[in-house]
Design brief:
CATH topology: Rossmann fold
CATH superfamily: Alpha/Beta hydrolase fold, catalytic domain
Shape: globular
Structural class: alpha/beta
Order of helices and strands: EEEHEHEHEHHHHHHEHEHH
CATH class: Alpha Beta
CATH architecture: 3-Layer(aba) Sandwich
Helix content: 25-40%
Radius of gyration: 18 Å
Strand content: 5-15%
Number of domains: 1
Strand order of the largest sheet: 1-2-4-3-5-6-7-8
Length: 302
């Protein structure tokens, strides 16, 4: 898949490629220089979701923005497991292959478990944490999400009708005017065929709702490991109108990281960066400047 010319202004980058286990190609952006910011997207988005932050911060920071396997411009293999553990393994591979140190982790949605699962495996490489609407712990899920996990109905709606993406375009943003024209095309781009939407379905099916779900143990081990990251500066920016990751999830993050700086955005939804990037870019830039890395870390990894 290639980015069409009409999206060139929104997404002006070509990106790079990393071969992961199985010989599949994982696409990622690597823009700017300086301290690395690792942006980890969720489902059903891709690196396109982070484009405004890359444009706004890459003049001072190195922005690393992967597309999970099966998403965006990455390969979409049919026989890959598409589990949380497998996505974490890929991100660990990316961080080590690029030899990233002093990383600021920036996560959203399913990128939360993937990103924090990676940070817990490579704790010495991650120095700052930025959280947008996500959860790595048990919490209330809307009935619409649970229905997508049902046999027969879930595959029909999510993969057959592209219902998960189309619901996002309707429900994941407070100001729907922002999702017109090229922006709307960008979110729909990776999911134009039934086969391509296999990834979305597998993400949904990997939500560990049942006690015996194979991902459940790994998912909750991430929550259990969070105290080992509690000494890192954390910024929490939350779209308060999120239908899925409601403010109840934000409060759970605050319990686990009581020293975090928190910015609830009253007029933003689940795709909070799309709703409020004009506020978020300067907010994040200011926070990064107020939490500089130690001088010895900068010397070791310029």
């Amino acid at each position: 898949m290639v980015v069409p010319p009409e999206l060139a202004e929104e997404y002006p980058w070509t990106g790079r490629w990393l071969t992961v286990e199985g010989g599949h190609r994982l696409h990622y952006l690597d823009e700017g220089r300086g301290e690395p910011l690792l942006f980890v997207h969720g489902n059903p988005t891709w690196s396109f979701y982070w484009r405004h932050l890359v444009k706004g911060l890459s003049d001072q920071y190195r922005c690393i923005v992967p597309d999970h396997l099966g998403c965006g411009l990455s390969d979409q293999p049919e026989d890959w497991p598409y589990t949380l553990q497998a996505h974490v393994d890929n991100l660990v591979h990316l961080v080590t292959a690029l030899d990233l140190h002093d990383v600021t982790l920036v996560v959203h949605d399913w990128g939360g478990p993937i990103g924090f699962g990676t940070a817990l495996q490579l704790p010495d490489r991650f120095k700052r944490l930025v959280v947008f609407n996500t959860g790595v712990f048990d919490g209330p899920l809307p009935a619409s999400i649970k229905m997508c996990c049902w046999p027969v109905l879930g595959p029909f709606v999510v993969q057959g009708l592209n219902g998960f993406v189309r619901a996002g375009l309707l429900m994941a943003i407070a100001d729907r005017k922002r999702l017109r024209g090229p922006t709307r095309k960008g979110y729909l781009l990776p999911w134009r065929s039934v086969a391509s939407r296999r990834t979305i379905l597998r993400f949904v099916q990997d939500i560990p709702l049942e006690e015996d779900h194979p991902t459940r143990g790994f998912f909750f081990a991430i929550d259990a490991g969070l105290p080992t990251l509690a000494d890192r500066p954390m910024l929490i920016v939350w779209g308060e109108q999120d239908f899925c990751f409601t403010p109840a999830y934000r409060k759970e993050w605050q319990k686990r990281f009581p020293d975090a700086e928190v910015h609830p955005l009253e007029h933003a939804g689940h795709w909070v960066v799309e709703d409020a990037h004009e506020r978020i870019v300067p907010l994040l830039g200011d926070w990064l400047a107020r939490h500089p890395l130690a001088a010895e870390a900068r010397k070791a990894h310029p």
